[in-house]
Amino acid sequence: MTPSEPAKITDNKYRFDCFTNGQVLPGNVKGRLPAMGWNSWNAFGSGNTEALTKIMADKIIELGLDKLGYQYLVLDDGCYKSEREDGKLANEPVKFPNGFRALSDYVHARGLKFGMYNDIGTNLCAGAAVGTCGFEKTDAKSYIDWGVDFLKIDNCYYLWDNATFSNPENAKYVFAPNLKEIQLKKGEFSILLSADKGILKGRGASIKDGYATGIGTFDGTNTGTTPVGPMSSELVFEIEVPEAGEYELTVNYATARQNGCGEWLQVAAEAASSDNENSTIFFDNLLPATETPETFEASAPIKITLKAGRNKIRLMNHRRQENTLCSYAAMLEGLNEAKPDHGVLLSLCEWGKTQPQNWGYKVGNSWRILNDITFRVGSDGNPGFGSWTDPGTPSVTSQYNKAVIMDEFSGLDKGWNDPDMMMIGMNGMTTQMSQTHFTMWCMMNSPLMLGLDLRRVQKGDELYNIIANRDLIALNQDALGIQAKRIFTTAAMPENLDVADRTPNRAYITDCDRIDILAKPLADGSLALSFFNLSQEKKCGDFAVDAALIKKYLGDKLPESFYDAGVADSSATAGRYTFRNLWTGETGTFENGRFAVSEIEGCGNITLKILPAAQIEG
């Protein structure tokens, strides 16, 4: 049954206040490196078929890609009937005539893993009315019966947010009402406080004409919103009360169903000295709609319990994130019920809308960070089109510019930032662009999901030599599982950033006329260093970092011996490091603990594996 309202949250593990506690939900296996495989969407859109899928499985084996780590073969949108049959998912009979279990068996027989697609909304993005919303347990059982190993779950037609193809008025669930004042009463005690007497916590909200507005969570679907720092806001009042007990809180509010102003309010309270994880939620629901977003009315009294002395009362709406977590968790819990040791990998595809870098680790192995990398997908005989740059999300650099500053959110104990499936092999992508695209994804520990018709690839050709570069794949699959950190950029720091964010590893930079240098520690004690030219013109200059700067950003992620090697002394190898270029095979040395290149082709990269010379010569 499709639900009529968001889930009632009775367990704090789904609450915003628990997002930072590091605890994952049962059934979400950690310690897995980024997924590698092939997904049908960029290659064939919703036109994929059983026959094409079998050919792709055979090509993975023929090309030896399975030996390199490409193990998941994923059916994306377009594989189901447009409606459920007896409440269950069913295969589209023309494109997938033998059903999903038979196809799963075919894939498994080749030593590969089988993946499928669905959506937390009522419909899939291509329109089929078979989303998992309200059918999570039923669908989970189907996926277990079909032998599914990987689930990509989308976010279209979602009931509790103004997501793609959703009702725009769903914004009522996403934002708190405009808030003008509160009144707190108990017996003869009464206090009236206007919004400007409260404290706006986080980012996004503001005081306008005497009321607080914009209380909610930033939409991260599109470019321009940094993923670093607070993603939501609250209006917090600190109030001294004479005695412990139950108080009545009345809120003067006005509603709308638009970005920045909704109808859903959460009220929490706790002692002023407590951390938020100890807050009690006293109200978590819609308030009655008002005539306009500036027509203020008094709410019905909300009963809250306070302690004698100083308390804080939090007015907020974290439901954008909490609802989405609950929806993905419903599928995970369905899988747990169907088969407790299922091991299914969940790939969250909500496009960064609800800032999944904050909560995605609880339920998934990876989370998309933006809308799609291309909207010009291919079909049988048409490779589709990929772009290097774009002001919106559909380009290599748009995805990279956000993902590159998200290393704090990834790791073996968390999961992986997902800047979408790769566009290698699409029209519009030169060999140079494709090499750098692949390198970026490897350095950032992104899932490596191929999205091209593998019939176009032959062993030893340009496409093969990119996707089969063992040295680059080894960076992505390195046992440390540490995403590279940007430690240098030639770009100026954006003026609108807080001082703490005006650093290469935290600044969200969209101007692509620049060189970036990324550093990635590796399990063998070596360092991967990538020099990226994001512009389409060749760049010449002295692009350099040294051991001291690397230590500043990577600290103990590299052994102390790596940094010590950069210190000059009387030994023959003092300050000397050896390198190998992971694209050309060129080898050489750097002196004085300084690592520099003088020119980089447009859209190009120079990626090196670096070790202290003493470690080699010893």
What are the key terms here?
618 residues, alpha+beta, 8-stranded parallel beta sheet, 6-stranded antiparallel beta sheet, 28 strands
SS content category = alpha+beta
Instruction: Please estimate the helix content.
Output: 10-25%
Strand order of the largest sheet: 19-18-17-4-3-2-1-20
Strand content: 25-35%
Which stretches of 5+ consecutive residues score pLDDT under 50?
A: none
The outline comes out as globular
CA radius of gyration is 26 Å
Q: How many beta strands in the DSSP annotation?
A: 28
What's the rounded overall pLDDT mean?
A: 96
Count of alpha and pi helical runs: 13
Plain-language structure description:
The chain has 618 residues and is an alpha+beta fold. The protein is 18% helix and 25% strand. It has 13 helices and 28 strands. It has an eight-stranded parallel sheet with strand order 19-18-17-4-3-2-1-20. The protein has a six-stranded antiparallel sheet with strand order 21-22-23-28-25-26, with helices on both faces. Helix 4 links the parallel strand 3 and strand 4. The longest helix is centred in the middle third of the chain and has 20 residues. 51% of the residues are buried.
